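dude i think i finally got it to work??
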Amino acid sequence: MRHAMLSLATLLALAMVQTSQAQNVPSTDVKEIEKAVNKAIEYLEKSQAADGSFSKQTGPAVTALIATGIIKQGRPVTDPVVAKGLKFLETYVQPDGGICGPESNYKNYETCLGVMAFSAANKDGKYDKILKDADKFLKNLQWDGEEGHDKSSPAYGGAGYGGHKRPDLSNTGFLIDALKATGNAPDSEAMQKALIFVSRCQNLEGPNNTTPAAAKVNDGGFYYTAFGEGDSQAGKTENGGLRSYASMTYAGLKSMIFAGVKADDPRVKAAFEWSQKNYDLKSNPGMNQAGLFYYYHTLAKALDALGVDEIKDAAGNKHLWRQELVKELLSRQDPAGSWTNAEKRWMEGDPNLVTGYVLLTLSYAREKPASK
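look at this
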């Protein structure tokens, strides 16, 4: 009974203590972690609007992300913050299955995050229909033959923002998360379509990526999209290649694993090697401070999915990434209990969004890797 009563934050800290003792590395105090998580949720309780929303002006996505993060910290779906958030999300459920604003340019992004929230809360089948309809909606959004793109097209299998008229790795990564949450197997048609797009966003020349960009950098990292002439938020190299950067590399790595690509596959090995060479928790490698907390989230989710506890950096130094990431996050918490990024790009000036990212990040840093 004693173990059953331990909070998830406490379990995280205990796991870290055991690991650090084996490695002779100082651990984060149990109470310090629990205090940080509780303080964050207290902040969110005060920040939530009367209708259950967070940052409503941006649509339902932030509310969905926060609801998922709080649930993953062990709070029940009956928790007032969670319950009100889910009720607000239900108002965005559309007749066609989308969980989004009817005129939104972010239908894939919003629906994917909505799926993650309803899936995390679906303990008794309450949201089965919502999830089933959303799964169908997302598959209809996926770029394929219906949009005039066959397997030879760099757009094939991807998902994107409606306003940009192109698929990208970030949206496709969220799509894969949602497909997994709704029960699609790694070898399902939608997953395998998405994997084709993901593989073409990797700087790795080979049978899975014959696009012109692949050979110009060929370092195993990932960029934003292979569609059209290709694009990287980190810019281009002198020879016109698309620079790899960390947040997309971890999004690509995680997505490949969820789509059934094994750890010994050249794509996974190359991505993991890139992540080790560029290991850094003070910045989003390739992007400096831009998208830092999105980066923390993708790093934790990818490395947890890969089942590794240790990273060896470019200098050969070994890092217990779970422990180091938790320490870094706790050091960045604001006195009010939230987190925010001074670099406001991609909405990371919004403490609601960033605090939701951190709660999710802690949930992946907490969990022990699945046995191989």
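The first strand starts at residue 159 and ends at 161.
im so relieved honestly
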